[in-house]
Structures are given as structure tokens and as C-alpha cells.
Amino acid sequence: MEQKKIRNFKESTRHLFRLYTVIPFSILIVLFLIFTIINGRMNLTQKTSEAAQSISHSMAEVFQQYNEEINRMAVSPAVMNYMTTHLGSDKVYSEFYEFNSNQKVKSIFHIVDTNGIFRASSDSPDALYSNFAFSNLINRINQRPNETLTEMNSFRYSHDRDTSYTFGKAIVKDKRTIGYIVYQLYESDMQKLIFEQNNEIAMITDEHNTIIATTSNVTKGVLNKFSPKLDVQGHVLLNDGTYYMYSKRIPGTPIQVITLNSYKSEQYTYYTVSVFVLAASLLLWVIIHFLSNKMSARNSESIDKLVLALAQLREGNFNGYVDIQTDDEFEILGDEYNAMLDRLKDLMKKNKELSELRTIIEVKQLQSQFHPHFIFNVLETLRYAIKIDANQAQDIVMILSRLLRYSIGNDRSVQLKDDMNYVRDYLKLQHIRFNERLEYRISVAEETQDIYVPKLLLQPIIENAIKYGYQNQSNVLIEIRIYPSAGKLMLEVCDNGQGMDEETLQNVNQLLQSQNNTTQHIGLYNVHRRLVLLYGEDSGIHIDSTQGKGTCVTLTIPYEGSGNDV
């Protein structure tokens, strides 16, 4: 049986890099070609339609301006006066030239009476006297004196100037036609108006598809009409070329705008893109081949470093850091590995310190269980109570029994309500001893009763409050408040003792923040370090004190609700 060939990491990386680069690049080429075809077609249709829209807008303005002008001139007082008196021709010409000079499409102006005599004209009318087409134009105006005649017709004037569109209107006075006013628009001006950049052919036609103006004579068919041949896809076949056509009729007019653009420009684009894609593909393949070799070599070097570091870690070497500077995921992986080593060493250090601290605390607890001074004080109080109050003596024995039984237990964490029962018993014994000189108040939020806390958490704090509270005074008030706040469990032990000055308070806080305590004051320090090691830097002890007013010690540990071990 033939053994399967196994690639190493370097070869696999090179192979996968080439494979996963060529596949998306091939897809990208296909998408690029599709996009190019679609984009080319959209550009063709868009520029064709935009040209038609632009020309339509311009022609609509021209048509509206001439329509308004001929209707104004047909009732103009200057024209009426001139037709009846043959006086004031200068005013008529002045109005015409003032209008005509402001137009994009210039025109020739005629005023003809009912006998066919030209009373006013901006060009020589000699060629129109015997022109049958012009006579028919006048007759059509006369048949509808209340309407404005607009039609396509061609007339040639001197200097090879041609007109291709006419506006005509009857001049009516007292319900009687006294003449006709005619505007004939120059074809050359309309050709300039319909010329648009990025558009090959443009034309305007009337409602009968007769060409009024065009930018290319190849569009003119029989009788000057536009009647193109179409292929099966509806494209225009014109002059051995295929064109996309867009037509738009100008609202309120008999004029239609038609724009044409050849598909040949698309073919040139496709050819250019194909050549570009082929050249880019060859170049990219060379680059991919080179980069795959470089990348596989660099990545395999990073993997080798990580494998070596893991082997050292397996042997117990916690100083086997890796140095990877590749600015990619391998560098992140190397940094995370180094951070993991730091966390492991820090965790081992904390576990060692926590173990030592637990040993110290357990020793202190054993010491407190049989503290000679405490036992002596309780027994001395008991001796007097036996003589004076037997019931109180019995209470002292029961409370002391509960304290000793609770303190010798092996549990390291207990429910808060159990630990607070111990605190109440302890304070009861102290109250029996000091009588009215000791007063205490305990407030515990109900929802915190089932929370698990380190055993004998508050005892060192309360001992300090009693020990230092009676310095320079005879009465002490101790207040204990336990409540949740912002995801934390707050335990406050406050007294009304002499407090501390700012320097002493600062020294105590510095002692709590240090990691090594060489002083004899280890009670608060041990509690603080224990909380920090168990719950993190956000937990621990905070002390507020004002000299002459008292001291308040606040313990902070995480709080997640009833029944959870914080």
C-alpha cells in the first residue's frame, strides 16, 4: 500500500496560500468582468438617456419661449398699430431683435398681411413670394386663427442659411384676421443645441418622425424621416453599426428627442479590460509565488520558536520566553504565551503567599482560641457572675462554649449569618465584661445572610476597635454595617475611639498596600492580603479615621447575590 505523502508546515502553508489566493482572485476576475459588462451597458444607457434629458430640457425652453413670444407679438400694440397704419415699424423690429438676441436658437421674423404681402421681415422674403410651401403655411395659419401653428418645414435663405421649424400665428383685431406673424428657427442653431458631449448622434423629430435637426446625416431616410432598422434585441442598425437608442417626447409639444450611441465603444472597453486582466494575472501569479515562499518561511520560523518554548515549559522551565516580531497573529500568539508565563509565575507566587498566609491565620486562630488574656478575662467575669447572678454566669458559659466550638472548626469559608452569630456572641461577652462602657450596633442586609465569606473575617477588626477604642476614654461605641453596593459586599466596622492622626493613618495604609510586612501589626494586614489574594486588587481593607472622632474600617469583597460563595 502506497504511503501517503505528508507535507511539513512550510510546504502546507505555501500550498494553501497559493490555493486560497488563486481561488478568490479567479472569482474576483469573473466578478470584475461581469461588473465591467454591466457597468459598460449602464454607462451607455445612462449617457444616452442623460443626453436626451438635457436636449429635451433645452428644446422645451426654446419651444416655450417662442410659443410665448409669438402669442405676445400677435396681440402687441406695436404690431396692431403697424398692421393698421403701416407706421411704427421700428418698434416692431426693436421688439423682435431684443427677443431674438437673447435666444440660443435664432430665427427669421415675418409679418404678412392677408393679401400675402410681407409687411415686415428680418431677412429678404423674395424667395418666399412664389414658394408654394410658404403659401400653404399661411393657409394653415388662416384656417385656425386662434391657435398657434408649430410644424417642421425647411426654407432656404441667402448665405446658405436654412430654417427647419416654424411658429405661426394669426393677427386678429375685432375678431377679424388682419395679418400673420411667423418665426422660422435656424437649423444650424438647433444642431448646436442638440450637440452633447459623450453622445454620438442626437436628433429632434416631429410627431411624424420627420427630422427637424440632427448631428449626423446618416439618420436621414426617405423624405427626411427617421425610420431605422432594428435587430432582434431592439438595437438600431445604422451605417454598419449597432446603436442603443433612447427617445423622449417633450411634454406639451409635438417634438421628440432621440439620442444614439454605438456599442462599438463597449467592445473596445472589453478588449482593453481583457488585456489588462491577462497582464495582471500573470504579474499576480509571480507575486503570489514569491510571497508564498516568503510567508511560509517566516511563519514556520515562528512555529519553531513556539514549539521550542512549549518543550521548555513541559520540562518546568518558566523562563522560556519567545521573541516573535512578525506584526501578525504569530506575534500576538507569542506575546500571549509570554503573558501566560508571567501569569503562571504570578499565580504560583500568590498561591505560595496565600498558603503561607492561611498557615499564619490558622495559627493565629489557634492562638485566639486559647488566648490566655481573653480566657482569663472571661473566667474572671464568670467568677463574679457566679456570686452575683447565676443566670448570667450560665449565659457566659454557653456563649464561651459556642465561641470555642466555632473557632476550632476547619471550615475556611462560612455563611455570613454564621460568622455574624460568632461576632454577636463575642460582643456579648465583651459587653458583660465592660457593661455600659461598651455599646454595639449591628446592621446586616437581609439579602446578604447566605453569602459565603472567609471565616472569622471581622474578628481582628473588632479586636482592634476594642483594644484601641478605650485608649484615653472610658466608653466605646462599635457599629457594624453589612450591605451590598454596586456589585460589592461592604462590611464596615466603626468606633468612636480616639482615631488616628493623618501621619499614622498614612503609615497604616502604606502598610496595607505593601507585599511584605515586617512589623508586629499583622492583624489588619493579614486580613487585607487574604482578601486581595482571594478576590483580586479591587478587594481589601480601606481605613478612614479622624483624630478625636473615631475610626471606620471598610472591607470590600465581590457580591453576586444570595447563596453564592464570594
TrEMBL record:
Subcellular location: Cell membrane
Record GO terms (molecular function): kinase activity
Reaction catalysed by this enzyme: ATP + protein L-histidine = ADP + protein N-phospho-L-histidine
Record keywords: ATP-binding, Cell membrane, Kinase, Membrane, Nucleotide-binding, Phosphoprotein, Transferase, Transmembrane, Transmembrane helix, Two-component regulatory system
Documented EC number(s): 2.7.13.3
Source organism, top-level taxon: Bacteria
Keyword Metal-binding appears in the UniProt entry: no
Keyword Metal-binding tagged: no
Histidine kinase domain residues: 457-561
Residue stretches making up the HAMP domain: 297-349
TM helices/strands, residue ranges: 20-38, 268-291
UniProt membrane topology term: Multi-pass membrane protein
Identification of the protein by name: histidine kinase
Source organism (scientific name): Paenibacillus profundus
Lineage: Bacteria, Bacillati, Bacillota, Bacilli, Bacillales
